[in-house]
Structures are given as C-alpha cells and as structure tokens.
Design brief:
Keywords: ATP-binding, Chaperone, Coiled coil, Nucleotide-binding, Repeat, Signal. The chain contains 36 helices and 16 strands. The chain is α/β, with parallel strands linked by helices. The protein folds into 4 domains: 79-246, Double Clp-N motif, CATH 1.10.1780; 250-430, 3-Layer(aba) Sandwich (Rossmann fold), CATH 3.40.50; 501-618, 3-Layer(aba) Sandwich (Rossmann fold), CATH 3.40.50; 654-862, P-loop containing nucleotide triphosphate hydrolases (Rossmann fold, 3-Layer(aba) Sandwich). The strands form 5 sheets. It has a 6-stranded mixed sheet with strand order 3-5-6-7-4-8. Mean pLDDT is 76; it is low at 1-76 and 619-623.
Length: 865
C-alpha cells in the first residue's frame, strides 16, 4: 500500500464497540468527525481504528487492532445526507468484505447488504432498505430468489485473502461510480437525502460486475427499475426525511386489508345487523362528513359489522361508490405508534397513510377499531396527536373513515373533542337478543367445526345462547356465547387428540403388572419366594395376557375412530375450499367453472361427507363402546359455564319448572316449623319464574320478622342453596355496620376524591362477582335511614350505579331483609288460636310500617315492594 499516495486517517476510540466515526483529511487530527480518506489513485483506504495513525505501527500491532468501520470524505459522504436505512447499509459494507474475506469493497457487496442485512448484522434500520429493495425488484419483474442466489455465487467466487492484514479496505472504482451516481439520483428523484432507491438505481446503471449482466439475463432494464421506484413513491412522494423508507406504502405496513381477507375467506360470516350495515353504508355515501362511528358495548359485534361491510363490498352488494376497486383497510394504531421514538416520526407515518388514502380518489375506506385511541396518540412535547391530523381530511370528505368504540370511551374521549365528534355520525350497536344470538351461532358454526375438527349440535348452540345470557351477565351477547362455543370445541378437540381414558387405564395397569412381575421373577430366580408368590406370578401372567389382548382391541378401535374423524375433517376442508373457489369464480364471471364446482363437485363432496359421517358414527371394533366423541352437545357448554361461574352443570340443564314445583317440599326438609313462611317464599319465587312479576325488578323482595333463633337466616341459606346450588351464593350484609350516615357510601363505594374510592362498594362489588345470589340485609332496623334511599332504587329499578359509574344488575337476585321489630309481640301473642295469630300479625305489621315510615320519611312506597 506504500506505493499509493494516501492520507492517513486518525483513529477512533480504542473501545471494541463498532462505531461510525469519521476523521477529516488531515494527518495530525485525532478528533472524531465524519469522513473517509480518498487517495489520488481513486482508491479508498480503510485503516485500523486504534492508535493516532497507522504510520509507525508494526505489523503485529496492525494484526492485533480490530477491523475498521466504514469512513468517507466529509464533503461527499456525510451521514446526514443519507436516509437512516441507506446509511445503515452503506456503513456496514466492511462487514460484507470481512464476510467474504477480502480487502476490496465492490459494488455487488452493496447490493448484498441491501438484500441481506441480517446476514451481515447490519441493524434494524437496514431491514427497511431490504424491504424497499425487494419490492423494487419484484415490481420490475426480477426473480428475487434467483437474483439473491446468483449474487451469492458471484461474491463467493471472488478471490479471498487468507492471510496478511485484512483491516485495510479499499474501494473499487465501480463502487465509487455507484456512490457518485447515487448523489446524482438524489436531485433526479427530488430527494433531500440519498435513499435506498437511489442506491438501487445507481447499481443498476453502473455496476458492470454483477447487477447489469444479471438484470440483462432476466430481461429487466433500467427503465423498468425506474418505473417501479416511481410507482412505489406514487403516494409518498420524494424523500424529505431520514426515515423516508419506512413511510413507503404505509397502508401495507400499518393497515389490514379487510376486503382482501374477505376474498381469502378469512372473515367470519356476519348474520343479521342489516339495519346497522345499511345505516353505515348510507353515511359513507354522503358528500361530506361521510364517517360513521359504531358505538356499542364490548362484544356486541362492532368489528363484525365492519367485516360485513367489507364482504358486501367484495360481493358488489353496495352502491357504486363502494364497489371494487374500493377497499376497506383497518388501521393498526399500535403498529403506527410502535418504534416512533423520535419527534415527528409518528406524524410522518400517519401523514403518509392519509396521503395514500386521499390520493386513492375514494377507493380506500379506513376502519379504526378502538377509535378513542386516536385522541392523544403520538402527542408529545407539543406535537399534534392523531385526531388533529385526521380532522381536516375528515371534514372535507377526502377521507372516508369508519370508527368503532365503546359507549364509555366515546363519552370519555370523543365527546369532549367537539370538533372531532361533529365529523363522525353515530351508529348505535345494541346487544342482540338470545334468539338473534342463536342465528349468529348457526352462521358461525361451519367455521368453528372446520377449525376444531369437531361437529356442533344445534342443542349446543341453544345452550350457549341461553346459559351465557343467564349466568354471565357481566359480558355481552353474542361475544360471550361465541366464546362458550369456541372453548367447548377446543376442549373436545383436546380429548380427541389425546389417548382415551379407558385405553390409558389399561396401559397403566399393564405397566404396573409388568413391574410387579419383574420383581417377583427376580425373587423366583433367587428361590426367595414362597408358594403364594409363585401363584401371584402366575395370576399376573394370566391378567397381562388378557390386558394385552384388550389393549390391542382398544388401540385398533381408537385408530379406526381417529381415522374416521380425520376423514370427515378432510372432506369438510375440501368443501370449504370449493365454496371459496365458487365465490371467487362468480366474482370473476368464470361461470363455467363456477357451475362445475357448484353443481358437480360440491354435491359429490357433500354426499361423501354424509356417508363418511354415518360411517364414523357406526364404527365398531371388538364389541367396545365408542371411545371418541366428535360432537359438541349441551353438556359440553354447561361444563364450560361451570368452570367460568362455579355453578354445577347438572343444575343448569335440569328442568327449572320441575325444580320450582318441588321448591316448598325441599325447603321444608331443611327448615322445620316455618311452613307458613316457606309457602309465602315459594309463592313469590314461583310467581317470578312464571313471568307474572316485573322482569325489571329482583326475583323477589322479602322481609323476615321474628325473634332471634327462629330460623330467619337458616331459611335464607336454604333458599340460596336451592336456587343457586350453594350457600356461598348468599351475600350477607350486617346492617349494624351501617348505623352512621357516612357508612352508607360503603354500599356503593366512596365518591371520587375520598378515601376508599378505588376499593369499590361492598354491595355492588359482591353482586358484580355473584350476579345470581340471595342478598341478606340482616337486622335492617339498625341501619341508618339513608340506607333505605339506596334500597328504594334497588327494589324499584333492579339496578344501582356504583361510585365508578358501573351499572350493577340485581334482577337475578333475591332480596331479603331480616328484623327483630315486633319480636316481643310475637312472643306474647304467638299462640296457635286464630285470634292471637291475627292480633300478632296486625301489631307486628304496624310496628314495621312505623319504622319504615320513620326511616324513609316521604317514601312510604318502600313497603309496596
């Protein structure tokens, strides 16, 4: 290298960490700055990055020094003049040279780092360069896989340096021309920085060693590459920031194409909701403010409605303005925000998305799930949040957007921003009825059968809708019913793919006997066993012989049943594929193929499915009962509900009418001597279950009066066990703890700003956890009068709002008050003669009315409950 005139570079820090430090073209300076040294011969010298200068280094010292990083002349190759992705690739070129054991950095190595950054540990930012490079090649007609393979062969075939000093690298003249061309491309493309596309264009133009010959072999010209770059940049425009590559085709990165997923059959069918979908389409067809927002409780099907719109768009069952090529794309706010660590980076990403949408001339509709997340998203240090970036396009009608959010989140975030609220038109999505939920489940049934490889009986669908509606009140239909069906299918699928219990028991018994036999056999050989041991050994041999025969039969049975089930699953998958292909052919007007599939292939598969299903049901080997069950029934749904709620499944499926008719007898078996009270309680419950009472109120409201020890609390426990299958379903509140005025707030929770606000209310939290329960207010006469204000609302409306704004439903509860009021009259007049009984009831009733009137004051209506 001494034959070349060169300028020695100052060294970097002696640290072993690889850095991209640069030095000016002066010999004496050791201050790290930017640049790499260019010599008069047109070659570039890379020097070790330890020590003040290479001059004076011994050969052994040079060998001990670590490989250098990439360094360029400040005036030509400033890092700030490159995009982050392009610079990450350029600054890693020495790693490519080290990978191929050479000191000469050539132009094909730049293409290698652009296409394979992970192979050379180029960093995450270089992956953006890889994505854009591969996209350019694909759009221009290049076979990327072949291109990469030939590039690897070309670089592997270059001469390798197996000894000597490899820390000095030189740049080939072709690579020098590529960099000069990349700087020219910056102005040609209108960019503010050298980009990955500029490097690709430069390689296409000036790399005579590999790129040009390879593209010629694949019949791809420079103009093809340039056209691909222009097409990719159609929406984003010139690169005006260092993160430009990350914003190309932003919708593909930060969005999910619902119409494409619908075309691939990846969306579930949408059953019902015609009015809501029609209303949303009507809003989308407006000239301005054409942005519907779907508002409803979690799980009622807001996202499903957006998917239903996408399916109608694909089928053409929409107005002309929404027909293909119009697309519905869901915006992933999480992906949009993730990794945007620098100020302005999030805004650039969102701006790129909006530019793509506005330049599509109405062919793209955005769907923003959890729309409240756009309020405040990306805002930091005074920068604008996503909602403020969206407002102008929303108001002008340039952007058609469907939002979805819950009622609480809409009230909390969207309503407060009036400028954002007025740009969206509300579409309320209510919870479907259990009957509508059954229809939805029937529509989803084929999808879940295909996924889990099981069959779902209609009784399971009915049970899922009914039991979820009754026993899981803190969630909403149809989501909770779908979850029940899904989990029941998953449970059955796990049983299908596991060894049957009867076979597992036989296998374990065989292992146990073989271990015992081995022990006895050893004793027999050592003559240390008596006649009983020999007899036991003989019995073990006989039992093992029988068990192994049974094991073979069970194994054969198991494999036959598994084969039958798998055969059904294979046919179902083929039917799903054919159905999807029929829809595709009908969309593309390939009517001949559609007719062949619809009237020939599909009926044959359906007939085969029916035969195979019948065969799988009738498989019988060895006289054993069927081991595998591939049908989900109502019991499976009840078992899942039991896991979720703790209620025994037998009680859920038992006929309620039969239970209610025998209620009085069951209670009398446990509570002795209170027949009259039990009859009153039974009549109240039966009246409620017969539908003769107000469904908006609790099941029953009762007051038990009497002295201590007569069985008031015991009757409450018996009622709880009968109705809800466990005494634990009784919520007991001792009203002596609520004697002071300030303690009343403990029932519903302390108001905001007070101690205990986060703890919730003792009554409301207990009912939210156990919505089916008996609520016992013990010794009600000791409570503060303000407690009865809460009770009045509870008994009248069947619901109470706690301190956090949660509405707690008491309509599935039995409300019971106990009191000792009038106890002395009961003791004094508790005779068996009718006159004493009548006088006792009159006096106790008057005492109770006087107490309630005093407590409730202006609300004597309390007693009517």
């Amino acid at each position: 290298m001494t034959s070349h005139r060169m300028i020695a570079l100052a060294a970097l820090s002696a640290s072993l960490a690889t850095t991209q430090a640069f030095v000016p073209n002066t010999l004496s300076s050791i201050t790290p700055t930017k640049g790499w040294s260019h010599v008069a011969t047109g070659k570039y010298t890379f020097l070790p990055s330890s020590g003040p200068s290479r001059m004076g280094f011994s050969s052994s010292a040079r060998k001990r020094s670590r490989p250098t990083t990439f360094r360029m002349a400040t005036e030509d190759f400033d890092e700030t003049k490159y995009t982050s992705a392009a610079w990450e690739a350029v600054s890693s070129l020495t790693k490519v040279a080290d990978y191929y054991s050479t000191t000469s950095v050539e132009a094909p190595m730049l293409f290698d780092i652009l296409l394979n950054p992970a192979k050379h540990n180029a960093g995450e930012k270089a992956e953006a360069a890889q994505a854009i490079t591969e996209k350019i090649l694909q759009k221009s007609g290049v076979d990327v896989k072949v291109f990469k393979s030939n590039l690897e062969k070309h670089l592997s075939g270059q001469p390798r340096m197996t000894g000597g000093d490899t820390t000095q690298k030189r740049m080939g003249t072709t690579l020098s021309r590529v960099f000069e061309r990349a700087r020219e491309n910056k102005s040609i493309l209108g960019d503010s920085f050298v980009t990955s596309e500029g490097l690709v264009l430069a390689l296409t133009k000036d790399d005579d060693k590999f790129t040009k010959p390879e593209l010629e072999r694949q019949k791809v010209s420079y103009n093809n590459i340039l056209s691909a770059v222009e097409e990719i940049r159609k929406a984003s425009g010139p690169a005006t920031s260092r993160s430009a590559e990350t914003n190309y085709e932003a919708l593909n990165k930060y969005g999910i194409d619902f119409t494409e997923r619908a075309a691939k059959g990846k969306l579930d069918p949408v059953i019902g909701r015609d009015d809501e979908i029609r209303r949303a389409i009507q809003i989308l067809s407006r000239r301005t403010k054409n942005n519907p927002v779907l508002i409803g409780d979690p799980g009622v099907g807001k996202t499903a409605i957006a998917e239903g719109i996408a399916q109608r768009m694909l089928a053409g069952d929409v107005p002309d303005t929404l027909k293909p090529p119009c697309k519905l794309i869901g915006l992933d706010m999480g992906a949009l925000i993730a990794g945007a660590s620098y100020r302005g980076e999030f805004e650039e990403r969102l701006k790129s998305v909006l530019e793509e949408v506005t330049q599509s001339n109405g062919e793209i509709i955005l769907f923003i799930d959890e729309m409240h997340t756009v309020v405040g998203a990306g805002a930091s240090e005074g920068s604008m949040d996503a909602s403020n970036l969206l407002k102008p396009a929303l108001a002008r009608g340039e952007l058609r957007c469907i939002g979805a959010t819950t009622i609480n989140e809409y009230r909390k975030f969207i309503e407060k921003d009036k400028a954002l609220e007025r740009r969206f038109q509300q579409v309320m999505i209510n919870q479907p009825s259990p009957e509508d939920t059954v229809s939805i489940l029937r529509g989803l049934k084929p999808k879940y059968e295909l996924h889990h490889g099981v069959r779902i009986r209609d009784e399971a669908l009915l049970a899922a809708a009914k039991l979820s509606h009754r026993y899981i009140p803190d969630r909403f239909l149809p989501d909770k019913a779908i979850d029940l069906m899904d989990e029941a299918c998953a449970k059955l699928k796990n049983e299908l793919t596991s060894k049957p219990e009867v076979l597992d028991e036989v296998d374990r018994r065989i292992i146990q006997l073989e271990m015992e036999r081995l022990s006895l056999q050893s004793d027999v050989e050592n003559e240390s066993v008596d006649d009983m041991g020999s007899l036991r050994l003989s019995n073990i041999d006989d039992e093992l012989e029988k068990l192994k025969v049974k094991q073979e039969q069970l194994n054969a049975r198991w494999m036959a049943e598994r084969g039958a089930v798998e055969g059904v699953n294979e046919i179902q998958e083929k039917i799903a594929e054919v159905t999807l292909e029929i829809e595709k052919c009908e969309r593309e007007f390939d009517l001949n193929r559609a007719a062949e599939l619809k009237y020939s292939i599909l009926p044959a598969l359906q007939e085969k499915l029916g035969m195979t299903t019948g065969e799988s049901d009738g498989v019988e080997i060895g006289g054993f009962a069927r081991m595998l069950r591939d049908e989900v029934v109502a019991d499976d749904i009840a078992n899942v509900v039991a896991v979720w709620t703790g209620i025994p499944p037998q009680k859920m499926l038992e006929s309620e009418s039969d239970r209610i008719l025998t209620m009085g007898d069951k209670l009398k078996e446990r509570v002795i001597g209170q027949d009259e009270a039990i009859e009153v309680v039974t009549e109240a419950i039966q009246r409620s279950r017969a539908g003769l009472n107000d469904p908006s109120k609790p099941i029953a409201s009762l007051i038990f009066l009497g002295p201590t020890g007569v069985g008031k609390t015991e009757l409450c426990k018996a009622l709880s066990e009968f109705m809800f299958d466990t005494e634990e379903a009784m919520i007991r509140l001792d009203m002596s703890e609520y004697m002071e005025k300030h303690t009343v707030s403990r029932l519903l929770g302390a108001p905001p700003g007070y101690v205990g606000y986060d703890e919730g209310g003792q009554l409301t939290d207990a009912v939210r956890r156990k919505p089916y329960s008996v609520i016992l207010f013990d010794e009600m006469e000791k409570a503060h009068p303000d407690v009865f204000n809460v009770m009045l609302q509870l008994l009248d409306d069947g619901r109470v709002t706690d301190s956090k704004g949660n509405v707690v439903n008491f309509r599935n509860c039995v409300i019971i008050f106990t009191s000792n009021i009038g106890s002395q009259d009961i003791i004094d007049l508790g005779g068996s003669d009718p006159e004493s009984q009548a006088l006792m009831k009159e006096r106790v009733g008057n005492a109770m009315r006087d107490h309630v009137r005093f407590c409730v004051r202006t609300k004597p209506i309390f007693l009517s409950f």
